[in-house]
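Good morning,

Both structures are done.
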Amino acid sequence: MVRVVTAQTLTQAVAEHLRTLIHHGEVGPGDRLPAERELAEQLGVARISVREAIKILQQHGYVTVRRGALGGTYVTELTEPLEKWRMRMRTQAGEFDDMIDFRIALETDAARLAAIRRDRSDLATLRAAIAKLGEVDSGHAAFRLADSQFHRGLARAARNVRLETAIESARGELFSPHDLLPYVDPVDESRRDHQQIYNAVRDGDPDAAAGAMREHIERTRHQLREIVFGSEDGPLPATS
């Protein structure tokens, strides 16, 4: 069947693009999005598509629109979308593990290919992302950005555009883990995991790279279970 591209699907695509930027930490709470005209030019779409996409993000609690001299579209504290995401994971049976299993399938293979296909530029990108993660001290958006840069760099090193696109999409669905956890420990754990993955990729060891990535995402699964379902020892962690 031929899928008809409509103005609504274009609007949804723009909204998803902006939402992914937020999930990845490219823009964070309090940041101002570019003006409609600028966004339209960047994305190659009409301003009406951008305007309608922003309305969608408003409805879901991602942005607020301010008027006046300091007006514009600003990212919220994300409290509402975070809570909606957590409730969706609780009520849709099986989706939680499906999402994690999908990430494991994608990113372990990407790590394996990266260990075979990476070049010096890729390794430099990964080292820079690890260094940036070690410098994070300004909040959760900064963590998400540094974390995303590492995973994006690894996906690019795999030299497979379809795989890279799928990883970006899958990671965009899981923007909330570290926003609801005590802050320091997940950062330290992620930095250690990234370093282990990097070492295997640098050494050209595909099996070690895939194994390190699997362990890293399984750790994320455990953290997410604490966030979504709580633990037997106490209530859900409080939002920050």
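Second structure follows.
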Amino acid sequence: MPGTSRSGNRAAGRRRALGHTLPAIAALLVTGSVWIAATGLLTRSEPLAARRDVEAVSGDPAGRSRTHWRQVSPHQVERLRVKVLETLPHDPESFTQGLEMAGGTLYEGTGLSGQSSVRSGAPGKPPMVHTSLPAPLFGEGITLGRTLWQLTWRDRIAIERDATTLRELRRVPYPDEGWGICFDRGRRQSVTSDGSARLTFRDPRTLAKTGEVTVTEDGRPVTGVNELERADHAVYANVLPTERIVRIDPVTGAMTASIGASGLLHADELVPGATRNGIAAVPATDQFLLTGKFWPKMFHVARVPAQPPSRTAR
């Protein structure tokens, strides 16, 4: 901006970033549980409700009873972590909101009012195509189908763009908060998030709602679902404010894997507002590109089994 230094822009952007991120973090509440009663026989689980079985105490003439409880997981959640294969440079001024790769081209959407953009180019290289959003629009997630869709946070619109030139084609009403978006080619639908535990399904041509599902882990809602990616017949999501990625069954909403992605940056590389965000599937592989808001690096990673907990010798 005229008359404002680059460092001043960056500091102001980070203050706005914190204003965007902290209220979302404060709203993240995980509630509910899944219980199953153990009475010597297998009983059915009832998500989000407590089930109780009463067993008569043997030999008790008064017929007093006791209740047995046992918490179980109705779904086996795979525990994984990321293994860094390559480290690439990333624009440290970029407030990353969406990341997607098609062929050898990486698309990135960024946020903050007056600084939002969409860009495309080779991973780790300066973008070949770049377009900015006019203030006060606050850019959010992006996805590619026939065209590119870009959400806005609270501006109540979504923008459709030409996937090659990034030229704006039209705007459509989007009454919800925009967070993450991905395109499910198999089901021909777009999937969006709004920071809650909900995934919303939408018509890929208009973004009109067609359905929704709640994301759950062991029957409990997983709030803070943020930027999304579609791969391996599943939806992958960053979870704010954690350092993990979750894999979600888009039909049931059940979480099928938890992927640890902590420690990618050194402590001295983190600045205020630097939140891990941005996940792009690398085509024709089972690998991802990961980065974050104000991160100076991007990481090409593979998913590997999480290390079992160490045992302390006695």
